Amino acid sequence: MINYQDDITLCAASAYTQKYYINEDFSNLPEEVQNELKIMCVLFTEDIGGTIRLYFTEEGELMIEADKAEEDLLYDDIGAPLKVKQLQREKRDLLEQLETYYKTFFLE
Description:
This protein is α+β, with helices and mostly antiparallel strands. The chain has helices at residues 31-48, 79-90, 92-105; strands at 8-14, 19-22, 51-56, 62-67. The model has no long low-confidence stretch (mean pLDDT 93).
C-alpha cells in the first residue's frame, strides 16, 4: 500500500489547455467510471471555464476544486461553486464509492 503525505489528484481538466488528466495510479478503475469522471470534468470546464480538480486529502476525503487564472474574465465566479455543489449532489454515489475505493486500496 502507498502512504501519501499530501493530497493526491484523481483527475483534472482545464478550459485553458483543453486537456483532461487522470492520475495513472487510478488506471485500474473501471472504464465506465473513468469515462464518467472525464465527462464530468470536461463539461464543468466547458460550462464554467477555468480548471477543475478532484483530489483525495490525507484522510481519504474526495474534494472538488475549481479555480481560474487571474486574467480570466470569462470564468463564472458565481456559477462555479453552484456547479460543484450540483456535482456533489448528483454524483454522490460515485464520489462516495471513489472515497471507499481510495481508503481501501491506498490508505493503511
